[in-house]
Amino acid sequence: MNAGRVKIYEASPEVLKLLSGTRLRVSIIVTNDLIYGIATNQTIADQCIRDNVLTYYPNTKIRSILVGNEVLSYDNQKMWADLVPAMQKIKKSLVSHNIHNIKVGTPLAIDVVESIFPPSSGKFKDEISDKNSGPGTKRHWGMLNPNGTPIYELDLTGVRPGSDYPQTTFAGAIE
């Protein structure tokens, strides 16, 4: 097998332990049902990091914590509004443990993007970017990165123009 990365949709102690000592870079998804609790309670975010990161890191090469799965594809304004605060609390927990090289992001499905080609002109659909409470708004961008650095890294590797099935998802990240 020639895999270099693996995405775990539900953090499993057995799987994280098995990945220890391998060269695989791991992304762990925090499930959608946990977003509200994490967004409203730092203790829940801290527990999530204790259970799913501190126990295994750095022997397991965790490269990112992905909060939610394709949240913006659901018409759930509450979950949209809770996404950024949940991401911030996860990042705060990592930083409190002096972990700075694990990115925090959220996987986005291709259906939230209006255009992807050329990559330099990629943009969210109007119904995503125009929502006042959605993480794609300028208000949230400024809140996440007051120094003006980009919030969303759109990873377009493997996206083929004209393909209905891109080889990757888009991810919004908090640096």
Automatic annotation (TrEMBL):
Region forming the signal peptide: none
Xref: Pfam families: Glyco_hydro_17 (PF00332)
Keywords, comma-separated and alphabetical: Glycosidase, Hydrolase
Any one of the GO BP annotations: carbohydrate metabolic process
GO molecular function: hydrolase activity, hydrolyzing O-glycosyl compounds
InterPro entries: GH (IPR017853), Glyco_hydro_17 (IPR000490), Glyco_hydro_17_plant (IPR044965)
Domain of life assignment: Eukaryota
Family: Belongs to the glycosyl hydrolase 17 family.
Stated name of the protein: Uncharacterized protein
